[in-house]
C-alpha cells in the first residue's frame, strides 16, 4: 500500500505547546496540583483576598523577591516547597486561567518577571549543589530500582530553567521593549563563561557524563538533554541564523554569495514515489510475462531515437511509467530477459494530459540545485587532459591551456563558471599558512563567540561527552534490546508504585515510549546543531567532533536505528493528548479507557520522530561527506537496503538526505545494484546537487586507492592536533621565546617550593645531586 505525502514542515523546534508538554512525563501529572497547592498556601499567607493575575507589577515583583529570599533557607523541604511555587508561576498560574492561550500568556509574563528578579542565577546555585550532593548520588547507586521520587529536587529545578530558556528564546511580535532587552542579556549570559568560568551548557554536559558513568543514576536525563539542546539552540542560533551567519562569513572572506538558499529549496521540493518493494517487483514481473504473448516485432532505429530523446523529467507521470517499466523488467536480481528486450525499446506511449496550470505554478523549472565544482576537481580534470593530449602535467596550474583542444577549453570554462569555494577550504588554507609562518603572520584573531567559548570548555573532555550522548542514543533507540549493563534512562519516568491495572500499564507503556522518543529527538537535534555551528566556526573543530563520533561507532548506531519499520516509527502514536500540558491543567480530565489509549491521536505522523529521523540522516551525511574511508564504512555495513527502505517515507527532506547517502556509495555497489534500482537513480539525479566531474552513476572512475581507514583518519587527526596545539596550547610559543643566558638572573628567580621542602632539603640534595655520578667527559663529547 502506498504511503501518503506527509505535510511536515522541518524547523528548529515543534510548536511551543508541544515543546513545553514534552518536558513533563505523564507520571508527573499529579505534581501539577502539588505545585499549585504550595503556591496557594504561601501566596494566601502574604496576599489576602486577591489572585495573582489581579496584582500590579510592583506587588508581583515584591512577592517574587520574597520567594527568592525563601530559596536561601537551609531546610531542604522548605526550599523544595518554594521551588514548586516558583515552578507554578513559570507554568502560568493555570488555576486562574480558562484556556490554553491564557496559560501560555501568563507563563510568558511570569518567566520574564522571574528572570528580571534574578531567579535563574539562584536556581543555578541550587542546581550546582544538587549535582555535587554526594549523599543523594551514593544512595541512588545503592538502590536496586530508581523512581521519580529520587530526582524530585532536580526535576523541579530543571523544569523551571527549561521553561525560562524555552519561553525567553522565542520571539513574538507583541514583545515589550524590555523583554527584547532581557532576551539579548539572557542569551549573552548563557553563552558566556559566567558560571564558575564555564558556560551553562558545559555544566549540563557534565551532568550527562556523570549519569553515563553510573555515578548519578538518579539524574533526570530527558530534562537535562532537552535543556541542553534548547540552551545551545538559544545561545548559538538555529538553522535560519546559521544560514545568515554563513552568508556573512562568505562576505567577510570575499567569497561569491551562495548559489541558493538551501532551506528554501528543500521546502519547495516534492516527495518522490518510493522505490518498489520485492513483492511489487514480483507482481510486475508476472504481469510482464503475461503480456509477452502479444509481443511486437523489433522497432526501427527512428523509434529508438524518439525513445532516447524523451526527457524523463519533463513530466512526472511519464517518468513514473518509465521507471515502473524498468523496475518490472529488472526483476529482483535485475536481469533482463533477452526475449523481453523488445518490450523495453517500444516507442513511448502518447503523453498524458497536462495537469492544471495552478498545480505546476509553484514548482521550479529544471533541477533544484545549481551544480558545484571544487578547485580540486578542475585540477584533476586538467591533469587527466594534459596527460592524454600532451603527455606531461603542470601541477596545480589551472590557467595554462596551451596544447589542449578547443572542447577542453570549453569544458574548463564551464567548470570555472560553477566553481564553489567553501568557508572550510579557506580556513584550511589559512591554517596551513599559520603553521608554516608562525612568526611572520603573528597570532590569529579568534572571535570569542558562544561556539568558540563552548568548544574551548568541551575540548579537555570532548570524547567523554560524545560517548555519553551516543550511549544515551543507543539506550533510547527503539531497535535496542534491554541489556543488564545498559544505562537506565527511565529514572525520571517510572513511578514509585508500579501499575496494577491494565489501563495503568498501557499508560506507563506509552509514557516510556514517548520518553525514549523525546530523548532521541533532543540528542539528534543537539548533535546536528553542534556539528553545523562548529563547522562554520572552524572546520577542524567540526572534524574533531566528527572523528570522536566515528570512533564511538556513530555510523553503525544510526544505521541500526534505521534498520526497523521506519514507517511505523514515524506514524507511532505514543502520546495522550488529554494528558499533555497545558491541556491537562485547564480542561476537565475525561475518563481514560484502554480503547481511547489504543486509538491515540488522529495525526498522520509523529512530528518528533520524523524530526529525529531527518536529523540523524543529516548527521550521517555530515560524517561521511568527502570522506572515502567513511563512505566505505556505509558500504561495508550494507546501508543501501536500509536507506532504500527509508525512501518509503514520502517526505521530500527526508528523501533528499537518504538519496545523498545513496549517491556517495552508488559507484561501489556494482552495476547489478544500479541496474535493479533505476527508480532510485532517477530520484538521485532529480533531487541531489550535481558535481560536474563526479562519475557517481557509472563507477567507471572508482578510486584506485586501497581502503585504508587508519591512514586517512590519522592524517586528519594530525591536522586537528596541530590546529588545537597552535590555537589553544598555552606554551605554544615556548621554542620561539627569548632565552635568558645571564647566570645571576636565572639563579635569582623565585622558585615555588612545597611548604615542607626545607625539612627534607638535605635528603633531596643527597639523592638528586651528590649521589648522582655525572659523566663530564660524555657531556663534553656530545657538545663537540
UniProtKB/TrEMBL annotation:
Span of domain Far11/STRP N-terminal: 3-305
Domain of life of the source: Eukaryota
GO biological process: cytoskeleton organization
Chain intervals with Basic and acidic residues compositional bias: 307-317
Annotated GO CC locations: cytosol
Stretches with biased composition (Acidic residues): 318-337
Biased composition (Pro residues): 346-356
InterPro entries referenced in this protein's UniProt entry, alphabetically: Far11/STRP, Far11/STRP_C, Far11/STRP_N
Region (Disordered), start-end ranges: 274-368
Amino acid composition bias (Basic residues), ranges on this chain: 289-298
Domain Far11/STRP C-terminal stretches: 405-761
Family named by the database record: Belongs to the STRIP family.
Protein name: Striatin-interacting protein 1 homolog
Organism, as annotated: Salvelinus namaycush
Gene name of the encoded protein: LOC120031791
